[in-house]
Amino acid sequence: MAKTRTLHVYSYEKDGSTLYYVTFYCKQWDGTNKKIKKMGFTRQADAARYEQDYRDRLAGSPAMTFAALCDRFLDDYRHHVRESTYLTTRNLLVTYLFPAFGDKTLTELTPVMIREWQNRFISSRHYQPTTLSKIHASLVITLNYACKYFGLAKNPATIAGGMGSQRPAHDMQYWTREQFARFILSGLKPEYIAMFSTLFWTGCRSGECLALTAGDIDLEQGIMGINKTMTKTEHGYIVGPPKTAHSRRKVSLPRPLVMILADWIRRTDARSNDRLFTRDRTTYAAALKQHAQQVGLSAIRLHDLRHSHASMLINLGTPPKVYKNAWAMRRYK
Question: Which residues form the Core-binding (CB) domain (predicted)?
């Protein structure tokens, strides 16, 4: 018969030896009371310490499931990042991480478990290195949140190491000035000429270009102000602050681009707060691909026109300090 030694700790006989077990009720992270029982201690103090350690861990909630952690993390994360960043991270968690780890408690997640999961992803060869890197980064920041706020001792994803690469496996795509000239004379509509010329000659991001208004263009001074961007949210596309504070800048416009934008503003009769380019990003990307093929050029993305601008400046021998402002980048490789 079990004998009480201290609160919640009891002794029992087994094979002629006196052993100890501890049993207690403890409120879980989800509010329910759970009965905990652990047997086989050779010392009374070890059994009592087990209960204390268990309660200490639960106070930080490392016993919650990964799915529950993600709910808490995403609810907090959305208040600290751009909505597009939040949506991308949420999509990665729901699509790739919930199925693998959703029902696991944080204490069950080990570096070995995560490493084996990574190896399955890598060996499947269904994902680009950049995609693998983003999936792993989402797991790391989620578990970092658990380490900081919910008592997880170490981040098993960090210990496991990364997968994939932050840089695309293919070379950066770009057009030369000569190739862009062939493209722009391929029979494009005036709107597309204005859009693609702005991307190529200023190096602005596609979201920044989509958010441009007539008031952002100073035709007399040949200056374009970039102070906002177009991003995709749960409620569609919205205009909001630029990617970073450093992204707010003024860019000098070459004379041909001033003339192109002046013509487009005149055609649309755009007022100060009217957006110059009102189609969605997909439509512009399709036109870029279609007309590139018509003149025998390799298809590139809208963002690659930004690469083309940088390549042009570098080939012209432009000092990095000069084009750093136009590109709104802090580092150059």
Answer: 64-147
Please count the residues of the chain. Answer: 333
- Residue environment code for 164-186, b if the CB has 16+ CB neighbours within 10 A, otherwise e: beeeeeeeebbbeeebbebbbeb
Q: Domain range spanning residue 119?
A: 66-160
Distinct helix (H) and strand (E) counts, the chain: 14, 9
Q: Which of 29-43, 207-221, 251-265, 276-290 has the lowest mean pLDDT?
A: 29-43
A 10 A CB-CB count for 133 gives: 17
Q: 149 in a domain, yes or no?
A: yes
What's the one-letter identity of residue 83? E
Same structural domain, 86 and 109: yes
Q: Is 66 exposed, middle or buried (0-12, 13-18, 19+ CB in 10 A)?
A: buried
- Check if the beta carbon of residue 291 is closer than 8 Å to that of residue 186: yes
